[in-house]
Specification:
The chain is α/β, with parallel strands linked by helices. The protein folds into three domains: 238 residues, Rossmann fold, CATH 3.40.50.12780; 64 residues, Luciferase, Domain 3 (Luciferase, domain 3, Roll); 97 residues, GMP Synthetase, Chain A, domain 3. The chain has 14 helices and 25 strands. The strands form five sheets. It has a nine-stranded mixed β-sheet with strand order 2-1-11-10-12-13-14-15-16, sandwiched between helices. Helix 1 packs across helix 2, helix 2 crosses helix 3 and helix 8 crosses helix 9. The protein is globular, with a radius of gyration of 23 Å. The structure holds adenosine-5'-diphosphate.
Amino acid sequence: MDGLMMDVPLLVRHIAERAEQVFPERELVSRTQDGVERSTYAQVVERARRLASALTQLGIGPGDRVATFGWNSLRHFELYLAVPSMGAVLHTLNVRLFEEDLRYVVAHAEDRIVFLDASLAGAMPRFESVEREVLMPDGPGQRPGALDYEELIAGGDPAFPFPDLDECRAAAMCYTSGTTGRPKGVVYSHRSTLLHALGIALPDAMGLRERDSVMPVVPMFHANAWGMPYAAALVGARQVFPGPHMTPPAIAQLIAQERVTFTAGVPTIWQGLLQLGDDAPSLASLREIVCGGSAVPEALLRRFDERFGVPIVQAWGMTETSPLASVSRLPDDESTGDAKGDDAYALRASQGHVQPLVDFRVDEASGGELLVRGPWVARRYYRDDDHGATFTEDGWLRTGDVVELRHGSYLKLVDRTKDLVKSGGEWISSVELEGEIMSHPEVLEAAVVAVPDERWGERPCACVVREPGSSLDADDVRAFLAERVARWWLPERVEFIDEVPKTSVGKFDKKVLRRRFAAAKPAD
Ligand code: ADP
């Protein structure tokens, strides 16, 4: 017997249409190079219709790739709505990618047109496959030969009807940042995008509501800003886009000025807020921050609670999982005791529970690797035969992350498979060592990498960034660790560095550290 409910496709177009119909007056705010722009859902959706119509006039049709090279802004959001809703595919380019990788992904995706911010006009190379460029005026900046965004949409039809589409068609694509080789193309469908947006809005995920002012700090070129712009529009929340100003002082100032209630981004940015002086703008409007993309050190959770009284909630995910796949929240019972207790912090520093609709299993045969599947998890990469390395034959995604289960079903990510240190045949978790070192009050940041060792195969090398003015030495670090980890985990090598190198999306770039220290002689 069939169910007798309507078979309504889940389409990005619904997000635009609902916002237009239900929340027309809700405000949207965007920082530009030298000011602030304000709009509403009604205006933005009308402009998205004009844009879709103008793109159609330019010959862009269903399935064509439309690239963006921009910061988080109102115009970028208009593209988020217009491009998938007209049946084309939005390809967000990572503006911090090396030129060689950028050329690779643009050619691989066969992008036909690219929209770029004026503030980035000098940073983008010319791409062979790209037929047209459109300049988005977020401040001064010229791009010879490019069309002007505002002129383009002025010629578009404000009543352009978004077509009916199959929900399984591609809506957007995003390439992984390539910490593990060539970037790989992940292709989101309309259906996966809508289900993910609903999923992240749930109370125990981001808990987004109409009354929120949401600021997507994670870039719109990184896994769709973790889905925030779509989820916020779906629930009718106000949105505040930080534009080209991504420094900690600028972020703090915008939070205070626009009374942002919710934001999310990688740990680096929140570490940066902790470095601000006592005259830093108030973060009192924030109800919470979701943080992920790399391990959130327990010390960051504690310091944020103490200094700002704003809870940081850890989430885990990958470009391949849309990205949000797990969130760590405390159950409200005695099992974890006082929310400020050590147990509670340990749980908050875990990656938490998988999202509804996401299944997981732990593959003991590959050292505890986490496997996931679900309606917003990729089943393969675009034009890439991965020969079973990432996608198993029975339909799971190998995450490359090694987990243990805590408190029953909380995922605790102990490392990435390739970052584990294998010493004398036993594994040492680089993530755990880093977390412990970073809990030292004189340590700003720390990354642990494996270095070759004649006797043990590999040993951990701790690369430590001291707080300004600190004279911490290698023995101090070891003495501090000796009370916290097994003796054989203690790193013989502790290197003091000025900064942990970061990838294009702000994660620790251990490749660089491994290269730097693998061959070099120990410092002490
Ligand atoms: P890349 O693999 O190119 O860095 P992603 O941005 O998709 O691209 O990164 C996904 C990876 O980031 C995960 O597999 C995991 O290793 C790491 N990660 C994401 N969130 C967390 C988290 N909360 N804690 C630890 N690691 C995380």
